[in-house]
Amino acid sequence: MTSRTVLITGASSGIGARTAELLAARGDLRVFGAARRTTAIEAISGVTAVALDLNDKAGPAAAVRAVAEAAGPVDILINCAGYGEFGSVEETSVEDARTEMEINVFGAVQLIQAVLPGMREQRAGRIVNMSSLAGEFAAPLGGWYHASKFALEALSDALRGEVAQFGIDVALVQPSYVATDWHETAMTRLIETSGQGPYAKMAEAMRAFFTGGKAAKQMCTVDEVAKVTVKAALDAKPKTRYRVGKGANVAVAMATMLPDRTFDNLTRLQFGYPKSA
User: Fold this and answer.
1) For a pLDDT cut of 90, what percent of the chain falls above it?
2) Are 114 and 60 a contacting pair, CB within 8 Å?
3) b/e burial code for range 175-202 (CB count within 10 A of at least 16 → b)
4) Could you tell me if 143 and 89 are in contact, meaning their C-beta atoms sit under 8 angstroms apart?
5) Residue 144 is part of which domain span?
6) Helix runs in 35-83, H state only
7) What are 31-56's pLDDT values in tens digits?
8) Per-residue pLDDT band at 20 (split at 50, 70, 90)
9) Dihedrals phi, psi of 49, to nearest 5 degrees
10) Which helix (H) or strand (E) element contains residue 48?
11) How many domains does the chain fold into?
12) CA atoms within 13 A of residue 98's CA, in its CB half-sphere
């Protein structure tokens, strides 16, 4: 078999970097890691760095062209890059909301559109989209982040049905809370957006949940998520969704089976939000 070519975004840190490292360590894949800043990627053995800014509309197509020129069509695309815009729906600016959707949704879709012609021609390919349990249910103060993951899930489901005829498969990875600096960045955005004003108590309760150790019991490691992402990329018959983290399946079941207001109350209790009027 010829060596397959993998392009993974968000490869400069966290889940993306560890996934790239695990894939490269196999020795039978040509692995390209993409991010805005490539210095950290260049330090990963066996991974070729590719510059990619998902805020640049021309960036995804340019990155795919660079990989194709170096190694041929992309066989496996792993969309790992992501951004967390947190704050109340009322206080989050439309501009910030657009940035969330541009990175988490439109950037991923542009990459998918760029790799699909080569995959269709080869009649084989795999697309792995990094979603979240946040794509299965929503919680207050994370509306736009949840919206981006809901959208990614819907697009992945639609895409899977469209490209199956060409031998291409689509899989979603759905981690719960992951022990990275992602939450620190997200909580910074939360306080900047909603730390003052009518939602301040709720924002402080969420910040305390993530920074005070309560969330730690539910955290999964970067390594756990990366190993599952490798499976999603390489399994001969991939599942449509790979959930990662303690209680992930239970959380989804509760969100889908319980009455909405009951689930709302459980969310309020979990984060310590103020009681409803």
Assistant:
1) 80
2) yes
3) bbbbbbebbeebbebbbebbbeeebeeb
4) yes
5) 4-182+221-248
6) 39-42, 59-71
7) 999 999 999 999 999 999 999 999 89
8) very high
9) -80, 140
10) strand 47-51
11) 1
12) 4
* 0.85 exceeded by pTM: yes
Amino acid present at 246: K
> What is the domain-level CATH number for residue 141?
3.40.50.720
Lookup: tokens for 162 = 């469209």
The first and second tokens of residue 189, run together, are 């955005």
Q: Supply the residues annotated as catalytic.
A: 145
Is the pLDDT reported for residue 1 higher than 50? no
Element (H, E) at 125: strand 125-130
Instruction: Tell me phi and psi for residue 4, to 5 degrees.
Output: -85, 150
- Any domain includes 277: no
Sign of the dihedral through C-alpha 79, 134, 89, 212: negative
Least confident segment among 64-73, 141-150, 268-277? 268-277
Q: At which residue do the structure tokens 């299965």 appear?
A: 136
Does residue 81 fall inside a structural domain? yes
Q: Average the pLDDT over 220-246 and give the result.
A: 95
Q: Give the tokens for residue 79.
A: 């969309």
